[in-house]
Give the backbone structure.
Amino acid sequence: MRLLVGPISAVEGLAGQADHVLSLISPDAEAPVVAGPRTLLRFNDIAEEREGLIAPTVAMIETILGLAGTPTLLIHCFAGVSRSTAAAYILACAHGGDEQGLAAQLRTLCPEATPNALMVALADTILRRDGAMSRAIAGIGRGVDAFEGTVIDWRL
């Protein structure tokens, strides 16, 4: 499996390399135009439920996990820092491997990555990792500050 991960600004340049696009954007954001198959999930980039905002749900994480068989998946959010890196990490863990090792790989690939903690926690429960995914992401800490994350080409 190949994961292309980045900000919304990179979608046009990367979409042609992907078999499927996963768009993780805010409820009121404009979705980029893509020619091929796409899954669009709309929720706010929040780490805990907040009144007036839409949090990621178990159903959304299950939808993400349902894309695990896609040969090349382009995952994007607005900045390519939080929601998209969380989805990539979730799919990497579902693919197999050590949670801490995968978190370290993510940090190396994208120094800005700060995966959405709520998404990771929901996946941690679904995948029965007993908190290992959440601990691994907490262990790499917050990524470096940036307007956009580095585009990732992660081959699992």
Notes: The helical segments are 11-14, 58-65, 83-95, 99-109, 117-126, 132-140. The beta strands are 2-7, 20-25, 38-42, 72-77, 152-155. DSSP finds six helices and five strands in the chain.
